Queue: 2 jobs
Job 1
Amino acid sequence: MARSRNNRQGLLTRSKILRAAEKLFALRGYDGASLREIINLAKVDLALVNYHFRSKENLFHEVLARRAEVINRERLDLLNRAQGRTAQDAVCVESIVDAFVSPVFDKLATTNVGWRNYARLLAEANIVQRHAGPLGEMLNPAAIAFCDALAKARPKQAPARHYWDYMFMVGALMQVLAQTERLERLSKGLCRIQDYRGAHIELRRFLVNALSCDQDAT
Amino acid sequence: MEGGLSSMPPSTRDRILDQAEKLFADKGYHGVSLREIMKSCDVQLAAIAYYFGTKEKLFREVLKRRSSELNQMRHARFDAALAESPTGRLSERAVIEALVGPFFERNLNGGAGWRNFCSLLSHTTISSEWGELISEFYDDIAQRTITLLSPTDEPDKRDKAVSAYLFIVGIMAVIFSRTGRLDRLSAGSYESNDITRVYADAVPFLVGGVRALLGRDEQA
């Protein structure tokens, strides 16, 4: 009885710390957010952070992993379902792009601010060397499935080509995830960061064509 | 900066900029202290303070130095392409090549300093923290690119051209961030430092994407 209460208490503490960390890391970046600020926001003792997460770096990686699992699962589900619908299991580029980007946009479109914070973090982690390793371990199994799908969808392309094309997809998506105010400044207010639906449509159109007709676009 | 005067030792100011650039690129702005920068270029803290004032101002100068050179090259490429165009318009491919070409070229031929800069710029563009600095150094070239992609007789294309520009920036950030992720992903079959090959693959990708966004491809 007492033990299960402790477990519940532990889970609650973990989740409080993870939420606070996600918010502050997104706001200030990994280096800019201190553990002290995180414990203040979470209203927990530093000893508990050490107990549950050992180090700041490990805490950051657990923050990344928590929602990465959800995104990975949804992406692979969509890709598998698309593959199940075709006879030769070569799905079209449109389905690959949809499986890759739509789970992310579905999350951004909800009013859950946690996902928006997470998106910023993901953008940073993708670009910074020291986080890209651990992030790669979380995302690469799904990434390889996407590279394979690209290879099957475009049999005429050189095999190595699909890896860079996958990274290009990541890059274009990162720009949306980073949600910097540059979009509004450059468009003089014509485009809004919060217009995730518009961004989704544009990114999809961009990626589908970039991946499909680049062989004869000369 | 590099080239002509190569026999001259770099000035203290340039030496500080080079070392700061390397350290900021490796560890991020917050991961580096002025003390570390001072040690790595063997100067007194007073020298850094004398030339740059604060860490933030030093960071700004690091970014400014090569950004100016890069954007001059880009403007020159736009000017040259426009001089040869009878219509005063450029194809999407010509715009993209003028925008990203100098970046690849400097990364390939500019030495370690430029490679550090490209990596640093990748992190900086994606962070919300340095948005104003990026705008200060890059909005001018960004607006020229956007205008060339959406000429005045097509004002409704402007917001699409803004998105196109930003997608290009995101893709460039992934290419030059030196994370090694691609190498692991492809199990070594494709090395991310093969810049010539990346350029050859990236340009048609970007052209395809930008043309679709601007509604220039019938099949899209």
Job 2
Amino acid sequence: MNNVKPAIVKVLLAVGDSRTSERLRAALSHADATTVCDVCCEDDLPSVIKRMSNNSYDVILFDLSMPGSEGVESLKTICDCNQTSSFVVLLREHDQTIERACLASGADDVISESQLDDVAPTLMRWLETSLDRQKMSLHFKARLEELECHNARLQHENDRSSELSQMVQQFVDDVSHEFRTPLTIIGEFTSFVRDGIDGMINKQQRDHLDVVASGVEDLASIVNDMFDMNRLLGGSLRLHRSECRIEDIIEQIAATLERKVAEKEIVLKVVIDEALPKVYCDPGMIGRVIVHLVNKVSESTKPGDTVELQAQADLSQWQVAIHVSNNRRHLDDEEFETIHQRFRQFDASLRLRPKRFSHGLEIVKQFVHLNLGDIDVKNRLDGRHVFSFTVPTADIAKVAARYLNRQKATKREQSGACLLAVSIAQETDSKLAEEVDDFLQETIRCTDLAFRIDARTWLLMMGVETGDSNAMMARIDAARDHVNQSRSGPSLPVLHVGEQDTWDFEDTETASTCADGNDQQRLSDRTTASRILLVDDDRHIVEAAAVRLQTCGYDVITAYDGESALKLAMQCLPDAIVLDVRMPGIDGLNTLKRLRQQAATSQLPVAIMSGSLTDKAMAIELGAQYFLKKPYEAQTLIRAIDSLVSDSCVSCPSVDPRIESCA
Amino acid sequence: MYRQKTVLVVEDEPMIARVIGIRLRNAGYQTIMAGDGYEGVATAINHGPDAIVMDVRMPVKDGLTALAELQANDATKRIPVVMLSASLVDQATALNTGARFFITKPYEHKTLRAAVNAALTECGKELVGT
């Protein structure tokens, strides 16, 4: 018994003369035992098109010269409106040119009338193809359904896990909230008794109450860590970065640190370098890092011994290094390895935490990395072990370059980054400007940066999908609208947001101009980096250009007016100067004149930039090597500076100034 | 002549209200108490305190709604408000609603005193300025 059902194949014979179509029909009916052909015939093009629109066929034999047909054009039309059928074209005469044209227009095969005896096998071959095609189509359809099903399930799981994750976040938020009220009560009542508000107590009682107070503080700090870790994992942690001094941060936590060490009868020695540069970080966060590290080191310090907190400038790396150490012998090997390894891995440890690794150090590492620093622990040669971490100095271009290197090295969520300038109207009330600052800090993600250039201008450095900075601008606008809806005070003013620059991390060209995140490499780059002085009174333009040049390996210093530019030029003797013409006080051309008059700066390569071409002649006369017409592309500026610097390397005085105008 | 400044404390948790009261009285202020946002707004309108210390999460009317009402009322909009919350999430909202100071629980009592002092001073300055 044969259970295999013969496959039914639908064939349309679109052939002009009935004799030929009868012959073909007969041939097809005896073709193959496993296939049954359901054959239809039509003898003019309009009927063929009509039939095709109502039925689907597996194979269509199309007579190119049938009535109504305009040859290849008609073939093209019917092939286009039917993508699933196989098309075999019948030619009255063998003609290679037409054959090729037919194949190019969508025909699967071409036969001529002289080969009509062979037409049955040819059609059968295409029938088979058509059957395969049908099978594949069914198979794909099934697979597609399967995938859609999987997709729906994944989507469901996804929704559910984000719902759960939100629940967990809410739970941790609530728990940390619930903890705070009793902690406040315990802390305050303890301190009433301790401070003698409720009557005299003796020294021992006071010491014991100090221990209680310190315990409350520890618990509060754990609650804070839990809260922040929760926000960090959920993506809602916000940083409030600003230019600040390490001295002020230490001052803020001094009382806490003193209590900690007094309780353990340890001496705390604070050594701060004189003239420490300002740093760029979230001061509260860095304060907590210091408290955590002093706590950690105190754990292994004996009463009477000293814990040293040291802050040092590391100017070659544009950072301040903070060391916390004691005079205990080395950490034991296992402890050292655990901490060392954890600090080394960038983010892997966020979720996988070994038992021996305390929660405190985990959050410390995250906080340091969020503030674009590094942390490590070392057993030093003099027998001490020391925890060290770094904080970048407050130089926008250098911080931005550091940010780009990190984003690239860690391959975070985004494939690129953008630099946006945000400004509000100059007449905006200063209190409202502060609120805009708060708003921007709250709106950007914890990994993004918001630099305040002046009271009413900001530069935002943000991770984006390549070419997606518009979406980012829209997001800022939407967030402002949202805040304004729920505000009772005056509305946040209109924010003018403009894109200044973009980076694509996948792009190898940018990759080569961006230092690669390797500290050693960066150091060697830096010792040879050319120093550029950028001068423009429009601060966000200067800083945006500085960010770009910094990422191209230049060391950039900036000035906002002619006077300070002259001072800086004398002090630092940069390798090249870029001067804007229109500036208040001494303008760019006069600055150039004075530079040329002084022996030390008379040969410095200078590019003049201006929106007006009339300044060009004057610039040449005064000895500028380059003239840049505003507005210019970032690449034009870089090319100009590359050329200025390479000229000065040869150290030949530019007798014949080469002037280029870049429109 | 020196007049003792009055601070309104709006806090639903009696123990917290008590410790804040003790601290502020020790710092030389007079205190009035209110147990929720509704009572807080009414007391502020009736007594016109020099400053307000207010919790965020409270029954009947929460602190942020009360703050918005205080800001909208001509009689109370100049009174400086120090918001107090156990939740860090509330901070941004509170500052956006017009609070000048935000303190998280548990707080250093010196911080509370400093915030109330600063709020009073700042408000005094503003009044001189206008």
